[in-house]
Amino acid sequence: MLRGFRDFITRGNVIDLAVAVVIGAAFTAVVNSIVGNLIDPLISLVFRADSLDKAMVWSINGSEFRFGAVIGAVISFLAVAVVVYFVFVLPMNVYRDRRAKAAAAEEVEDAGLTETELLTQIRDLLAETGSANSGGSGHPRH
């Protein structure tokens, strides 16, 4: 029973999920700070409101429609998406591309011969075979 639990916990995807949750919580604090300290002051200049939650509020028959709050949620989402992409996804993609190119180069090196060296060996082998078949003339028989 404990062994199964240990196997479950040490699986890569469980650890990755835990890391993602922690990083997500940290990003929430950063995004809230950006929105609260940079975006909301800009909104207060434009809409004369303390924050997006209080901007563009329309009341109809006692019901309040808070368009500013919706725009604030969209801005928060886009801020998280931009940070995640440029801080994690893009650098990771560049890193993976570089590793793939390096691995491909290693495979070529591991293969041993370059294309030119291989063609040179083929030429030399053909020349040897031709000289052995023709009695030393250097040309293959047809």
Overview of this protein structure:
- The chain has 142 residues and is mostly helical.
- It folds into two domains: 2-83, Non-ribosomal Peptide Synthetase Peptidyl Carrier Protein, Chain A (Orthogonal Bundle); 112-142.
- The chain is built from four helices and two strands.
- A two-stranded antiparallel sheet has the order 1-2.
- The relative contact order is 0.05.
- The model has no long low-confidence stretch (mean pLDDT 80).
Q: Helix/strand/pairing class, anyone?
A: mainly alpha
Order of helices and strands: HHEEHH
Shape: elongated
Superfamily at the CATH H level of the largest domain? Large-conductance mechanosensitive channel, MscL, domain 1
Termini separation (Å)? 76 Å
Overall CATH architecture of the largest domain? Orthogonal Bundle
Radius of gyration (CA) equals 33 Å
Domain count, please report it. Answer: 2
Strand content: 5-15%
* Residues in helix, %: over 70%
Strand runs, count: 2
Which features would summarize this protein structure in a list?
142 residues; mainly alpha; Non-ribosomal Peptide Synthetase Peptidyl Carrier Protein, Chain A; 6% strand
